[in-house]
Amino acid sequence: MKNWLLGLVVCCSVFGCSSSRPQPKDVSVASRPRLVLNAIPRQGFAPLRVSFQANLQGVMEENHEFYCQREEWDFGDGAVSSEQPHCETFTEGSKITTEFFVDHVYETPGTYNASFMLGDKRVRSGKVSISVIESYRGAGPGR
């Protein structure tokens, strides 16, 4: 009995076992919109200019619920940027924006957590950490 059970476990782990019963699919995770936030560079000397890009995923480009949404950037240093895009009325063939871009300059050293939020749906990105290092102004030649 033990050898038979061990053979079944090895067979399933190597070849995969299938069941005649259909497995439930978790469609809620796949259909939930999300924002992915990237920043370049994520570390540098002050003043540091950082380019941010947010990508909206899990939404069809024709989904009118996400058409012409307010954009809100929080740079983590007290600065925020909010913009309501000027869009035409949604019609068949209209596309939603799925990529968002902005630049920001960090003037003082520190670690900042930036994030992005899209519209009334309150789709939020994760936070991206930015490390700003104090510029080195050492005693150069002749000082």
Q: Give the helices and strands as they follow along the chain.
A: HHEEEEEEEEE
Main sheet specs: 6 strands, mixed
The SS-based structural class is mainly beta
Q: What CATH first level would be assigned? A: Mainly Beta
Q: What oligomeric state best describes the polypeptide chains here?
A: single chain
The CATH homologous superfamily is called Immunoglobulins
CATH architectural category: Sandwich
Number of helices: 2
Describe the 3D structure.
This protein is mainly β and 143 residues long. The chain has one domain (30-133): Immunoglobulins (Immunoglobulin-like). The chain is 13% helix and 37% strand. The protein has helices spanning 2-15, 27-31, and strands at 34-40, 43-45, 48-57, 71-74, 80-83, 99-106, 110-118, 123-124, 128-133. Strands 2, 4, 5, 7, 8 and 9 form a six-stranded mixed β-sheet that branches. Strand 7 and strand 8 form a beta hairpin. The radius of gyration is 24 Å and the shape is elongated. Residues 1-30 have low confidence and may be disordered.
Quick summary of this structure?
With 143 residues, the chain is mainly beta. It is 13% helix and 37% strand. The longest helix is centred in the N-terminal third of the chain and has 14 residues, at 2-15.
